[in-house]
Specification:
The structure is a homodimer of 298-residue chains.
Chain A: E1 4-7, E2 10-11, H1 17-28, E3 33-41, E4 46-53, H2 55-72, E5 88-97, H3 101-119, E6 123-127, H4 138-142, H5 145-152, E7 174-178, E8 183-189, H6 194-204, E9 214-221, E10 226-233, H7 241-253, E11 259-265, H8 270-280
Chain lengths: 298, 298
């Protein structure tokens, strides 16, 4: 079996297609790295890229991509609904096959060191790669966003792990880490009132007393004139997707609001789909080996 | 996305293990074909084999297997409880992923032509591959069995689609076809009253005015002292599994009965799992290509 690492960098451009293509091309052009998916969101003004490959190829592709990000994005002009701390905003490495979490932490460190030194960007290691407990949570690291980092970085607690101790005005800062597979999952409401989405987000997420592996916020999707609960399920094996979905439906009822749909952004592990079917169809003794297609992987 | 076809040949030997192994080995030895399951029944004197692979590999494996069947089985000595028309009795090709029914019909035709010419066997195409309406139903095609075909084949209506117009005394005849995947699916009730299960079965099935691709009956599961609606979903793409499940729940309420669980017997195509998650989570624009593991096939 091949050694495979997944990398899901997020960068702060979701409107200019030409720029997005230049950046994504850096992955396409790196041998051994396979671009799986990328999508841009205009209201977030942000793009998410997913690629896999050998640890070496993924590392190389990520540095190549970073170069294009810093060439083409200027944070001094950036506006978007999604929190962000830099042109290259967040870079997680995820072990998929034949690779340990420890190896992904080493990759995060090497890529962080390179980006810090080569592009003069303050780098914060997060989640499993965090240098201390206080940096494990991405939201905590990103708090204050690009604009706030000019002050935050002066705090001794927020000395970067790599790179300069000064925000790069054009490129901002970046969070680089290692983690288990994450599901980016949005739930759409039949209201344009973003405050309702935000209230729901606040009670379903871990931070607000909600589900342990849920991060969420309310956003307005302008082109559909619709409020959305934008969610990250950071460990679907422990906080199942259907549980998040049902909890949002339940909370929405309190405002007389309905869920009109949901969407997975980027990729989803098959286990999250299986657990959904198992729950709703009340499967007894279901084994993934009963699924025809999984047998070809043996 | 990988292209996957399933093939479930039935052959007329269920007692001599050495012969069964020789025949099954032909599948094992074909590169790109993967043997999923095989089982022999002594009283039926018959074996069922399940394998999957690319269309090309499945076609090759099936011809290789046919060669071993005709070398090792002599219908002149065959006795068994299950209806059969030949040494190789019935060969369905089933589209699983990235393959159309039309392609499976083409495979059935090519394999039929090869078996007809190479092994001198009369070949009848059935179900979706049938050359006319009267040959769609397998039971109708097989009627008369091996012994009866010496007369039946003289009828102009029963001229074979491929091969000679004379029964091969050693090998008999064979039915080769294409069909959609079938799901054996049981739904368990919190009652021991099998009459309630039977009433539900009668209204949800096609025969009783229910769902087009559902066959169902009520059965008693003695060891759990429980009534069960035992179901075959013969085309899950048109009659979705979740629709059957929800309809059973709805009908059960009329008797104050609840569904306590459900179970898939044997194999299930991944598409049936995906459609379940799509329905309950109200996915918008979901693509199976978003499922990480499916990308490994590319």
């Amino acid at each position: 079996m091949a050694r495979l690492v997944e990398c899901i960098p997020n960068f702060s451009e979701g409107r200019n297609k030409e720029v997005v293509e230049k950046i994504v091309d850096a992955v396409r052009k790196t041998e051994g790295a396979k671009l799986l998916d990328y999508s841009s969101d205009a209201s977030h003004n942000r793009s998410v890229v997913t690629f896999i490959g050998t640890p070496e190829a993924v590392e190389e592709a990520m540095v190549n991509m970073a170069e294009k990000v810093y060439e083409n994005i200027d944070m001094r002009n950036h506006k978007g609904e999604h929190p962000r701390m830099g042109a290259l905003d967040v870079v997680p490495f995820v072990p998929i096959t034949g690779v340990t979490m420890e190896e992904c932490i080493e990759i995060a460190n090497r890529v962080g060191k390179t980006i810090g030194e080569k592009f003069n960007i303050p780098v914060y290691l997060y989640e499993k790669a965090a240098s201390n407990k206080g940096r494990e949570n991405l939201a905590t690291v990103r708090k204050g966003q690009y604009e706030g980092f000019f002050e935050k970085i002066k705090d001794a607690d927020w000395k970067p792990d790599y790179g300069p101790c000064e925000v790069n005005e054009k490129g901002g800062c970046v969070a680089i880490g290692a983690r288990v597979p994450l599901i980016a999952y949005n739930i759409n409401l039949d209201t344009d009132n973003v405050e309702i989405a935000d209230k729901i987000a606040k009670v379903i997420r871990h931070l607000g007393g909600g589900l342990r592996y849920v991060k969420a916020l309310g956003v307005k999707i302008e082109d559909r004139n619709m409020a959305q609960v934008s969610i990250n399920v950071v460990d679907y094996q422990k906080t199942a997707l259907y549980r998040v979905f049902e909890m949002v439906k339940m909370e929405a009822r309190r405002y007389g609001v309905n869920v009109i749909g949901s969407e997975v952004i980027g990729l989803i592990p098959m286990g999250a789909i299986f657990q959904t079917a198992e729950y709703y169809l009340q499967f007894e003794n279901f084994s993934t080996e009963q699924v025809l297609e999984t047998r070809i992987w043996e």
